[in-house]
Design a protein that fits this description.
The chain has a three-stranded antiparallel sheet, with helices on one face. α3 packs across α4. It is mostly helical. The two termini are 35 Å apart.
Amino acid sequence: MHLIKLPVLNSEKLNLRLRFTKGLWRINMVNLAQITGEVIPKRVFPDKVLTGDFSDTVTLNKLNDKTKYLVTYPGDEYRIIFPQESLAGREYFLESEGYYIEWMREEWLKEENWSRVKKAMLFPSSYLKKTAPFYKLNETEMESIFWSSKYAKVEKPIKP
């Protein structure tokens, strides 16, 4: 989500033009809002965490302690339950810290080509010029392949 502060408007009508770089940008919402004052968010901590059908107090303790970290792996699933009284009529932001690693998917490994990797690392400019037309031809299909590919899943819930 991006917030852009606009200059003071002297008109009832507003025309905005959004320009993006080429690529896979997606716009699922554009809103116009008026900032009326500072809002101090209230931090809400989970009451309970379930791993499968089991209560997971170790994970709950990690989520509620700013000095601890929850490290997840492919196939990990958690149901995080928050206090009911905090839910009605509010907006929420999920805060997280850390980094994301895309795990290799078997569908991708079929096209593994170390010769191309070497060329991309040693001669990036010429490699990109050579492969850009191929990428453009397949760009729309590549996205559907990505979203339809499968990744690791938990076969059985892990008991805490």
